[in-house]
Write a structure and sequence with these properties.
There is one protein chain. The chain has 654 residues and is mainly alpha-helical. 62% of the residues lie in helices and 4% in strands. The protein has 28 helices and four strands. Helix 8 packs across helix 9.
Length: 654
């Protein structure tokens, strides 16, 4: 339950309020702010305190660790001044936590050489290419697009056991939701929708004989939109900088989206887990890019901004929060600056006015969506169903106080520092970059895993880039430059076991999902072996029943035309099958296993009463699980059949 994170939620709320209030407080020009030099030194002192604390709390690094090797990254900054080099050194302890999977990581000679060459070159690039013209927009975005297409097209890792299992598990959530919708189940009543109605509707529209190809298309398309929107924002923010300095954030953004979100301990690719990439974040990314383009190019087209905000509202509850917390405060800030509100009373009035407009617009938008839902289903959406995953984030974990969360906070701090000395336009750009980071950062609140911070790196890079574009003094500038360079160089620390395993199978250069979709049908012994191998690491006690037994059951059900069962096993996969009439909305154990059992039982009961159809569940008898009992409470067993270690039960609503 989210209540377990009350302290973290309180801290997040305070930081969010401060981030929102900061640009409005800068309207109060009667207050004399400290000098830029003083602010820079205070920020540097804060970095030093945090960095020393992290060094003391972590294992002492070896000579070939990324932390020690990256000291060389500060060397090119010496030519710019001691403050720049000091700022670069202060970045190192914070960035070092990015390799969370191995606290005592050591690089071999080849990886160390790659790491050093890439990092030093990235820091030195501004001196090598000093012309103040920014990165060329069209060639830069074309190159980024080509890299993005390659990243979402190459699917060889899906031929490895871990890659195969990861994709099947993470894509099942989207396919299961879409199939339930097409089968007649009512969202939020018969089943909760983890990632929102937007992805569910789009994927459902692309379903033909199966929904897996549609999921791949939507994931690939939204990843590319996400990549282009964030890269476009970087190009806009750095257009006044030296080309060498502008290219580093662009490279860091490409790495953040195409590499860091692909699970660095065993890199698979941005397409493997769509929920940490474009399918979750592209509405926010497009809104941020629109605002930054409007500011940098000097146009105002609020109708388009409202449309992008509505896209977020429709897409998912998370996207609705992201878009609302960015768009309406931005409009309120812009209005306060336009009318010249500089007194406490005037600024307060504008803040309250903006909050009122945002509240009214949001209520009106959700009321319209609820009305549309009633028109389609002749009932109002369930609030409990709509908020199921908001109230119960899957896999709640505590914050690691020595993890990479400090890098995110430092990035927020540096863009706040930049705002303090910026002009009106710079304050607005800094604000949307900062609040965009905090909005996306809500993703970290439930499952506070270190890797979730890495999935937020695109927004961290955007905040750092905005600060660089607005203008920083030497310590803060050195911190930003070394941080961005390190995010590129640290690719040398990634693991590529899944790709190596795929290469051994001769599948490293596969394009598209066709082989994966063939494998999840489980019609060959090799496909069943892939599942068994994916479950063997780490080993499970007791050992699961052989997947070949489940494959035999699935084939028997297909031959009888019974449709897909609910597959209850440690794999937590959604069985392959064509869309058809649904007998339950709770068709994917992996999507719902971490919800409270009483809520799961409620959804199962609702589906039994509304759909009132028979169906099958396929249960691994070697495992202890509550799922059969949750179904047996609302269904009667009318037939059962054993397949090795599995039992298939035919259920009919009571």
């Amino acid at each position: 339950m989210i209540e377990q994170k009350a302290a973290l939620l309180a801290v997040y709320g305070v930081l969010l309020v401060v981030a929102c209030i900061l640009p409005f407080s800068l309207q109060l020009r009667a207050y004399k702010y400290p000098s830029a030099w003083t602010i820079d030194r205070v920020y540097g002192a804060a970095l030093a305190v945090v960095g020393l604390a992290l060094l003391a709390a972590r294992p002492w690094p070896g000579l070939t660790s990324p932390l020690v090797l990256s000291i060389a990254f500060a060397a090119p900054l010496v030519f710019s001044g001691a403050g720049y080099a000091i700022g670069g050194l202060l970045a190192l302890p914070l960035v070092a936590a990015a390799t969370w999977w191995d606290a005592s990581l050591r690089l071999d000679a080849a990886r160390a050489a790659i790491f050093l060459v890439v990092g030093i070159l990235a820091v030195a690039l501004p001196r090598l290419l000093p012309r103040a013209e920014g990165a060329p927009p069209s060639p830069s975005l074309l190159a980024i697009f080509v890299l993005g297409v390659a990243a979402v097209s190459l699917t060889g890792f899906m031929g490895s056991p871990q890659g195969f299992g990861t994709v099947w598990h993470h894509w099942s959530v989207y396919v299961g939701s879409s199939q339930a919708l097409l089968g007649g189940a009512i969202p939020f009543q018969d089943y909760p929708v983890q990632y929102g109605m937007g992805p569910t509707l789009v994927i459902a529209a692309l379903c033909g004989q199966e929904c897996w190809s549609g999921t791949y298309i939507v994931a690939a398309a939204t990843n590319l939109l996400y990549l282009l929107a964030m890269a476009g924002s970087v190009v806009l923010l750095t257009r006044r900088l030296p080309i060498g300095l502008a290219l580093v954030p662009l490279a860091a953004m490409a790495c953040a989206i195409l590499m860091w979100t692909g699970y660095p301990p065993d890199f698979k690719g941005p397409i493997a887990t769509p929920s940490v990439d474009g399918l979750r974040f592209f509405p926010l990314a497009t809104l941020l890019c629109f605002i930054i383009a409007a500011e940098e190019r000097g146009f105002r087209l609020d109708a388009a901004g409202h449309a992008l905000w509505l896209l977020g509202i429709v897409w998912s509850p998370e996207a609705a929060f992201y878009a609302t917390i960015v768009w309406w405060p931005y409009l309120a800030l812009r209005r306060a600056q336009d009318i010249g509100a500089t007194s406490v009373t005037g600024v307060t009035i504008e803040v309250l006015r903006g909050a009122g407009v945002a509240l009214a617009a949001t209520v009106a938008a959700f009321a319209a969506l609820a009305t549309l839902f009633w028109v389609v289903y002749h009932q109002w959406p369930s609030i409990e169903g709509f908020t199921a995953y908001v109230r119960n984030p899957p896999g709640i974990l505590p914050v690691n106080p020595t993890g990479p969360i400090w890098l995110a906070l430092a990035a927020a701090g540096v863009v706040a520092v930049a705002q303090l000395r910026a002009d009106a336009r710079g304050i607005r750009v800094g604000f949307v970059s900062l609040i965009g980071l905090f909005a996306a950062g809500s993703y970290y609140l439930g499952r506070s895993h270190d890797n979730n911070v890495l999935n937020l790196l695109p927004f961290i890079v955007l905040a750092l880039t905005a600060a660089l574009g607005i203008g920083l003094k030497d310590v803060a500038s050195g911190f930003v430059q070394v941080t961005l360079a390190s995010l590129v160089a640290l690719l040398a620390t990634f693991g590529f076991e899944s790709w190596n395993a795929a290469a051994q199978r001769g599948e490293a250069w596969n394009i598209g999902p066709s082989l994966f979709i063939s494998d999840i049908r489980l019609v060959t012994a090799e496909s069943s072996a892939l599942v068994d191998q994916s479950l063997a690491d780490p080993p499970k006690t007791p050992a699961p029943a052989p997947t070949a037994d489940a494959a035999a059951a699935l084939e028997w059900l297909r031959a009888r035309g019974e449709g897909s069962p609910v597959w209850v096993s440690p794999s937590m996969f959604l069985p392959y099958g064509p869309p058809g009439p649904a007998w339950t909305g709770m068709n994917d154990v992996g999507a719902f296993a971490l919800l409270p059992h009483d809520e799961v039982e409620t959804f199962i009961r609702n589906g039994a009463q509304h759909l009132h159809r028979p169906g099958w569940i396929l249960v691994d008898r070697t495992q202890t699980t509550p799922w059969p009992a949750l179904f047996f409470t609302n269904y009667s067993i009318t037939e059962q059949r054993d397949f090795g270690g599995y039992t298939a039960y035919r259920l009919a609503p009571k």
